[in-house]
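Following up on my earlier thread - several people asked me to post the actual chain instead of describing it. Fair enough. Here it is, all 79 residues.
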Amino acid sequence: MSRVCELTGKKAMVGNNVSHAMNKTKRKFNANLIKKRFYIPEEDRWITLKVSTAALKNINKNGISAVLKEARAKGFLNK
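Reply from S.P.:
Thanks for posting it. Predicted structure:
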């Protein structure tokens, strides 16, 4: 599976490692992803999502139903 958040679409970014001598080599900044199970009471089922920690904070703040509804509207989630 790819390293992409299923709710926000966050994915790896590309940047540089910079040494003390200012030599630059390419590197990847991966998203901080967690595989987590959520219970959806409206559908009476569990779903497993790969979400970023920022999306997890949004779920804790707004609730899973609201965040899923917003993600479906943006086209990130097809479940």
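The chain has one domain: 13-74. That should answer part of your original question.
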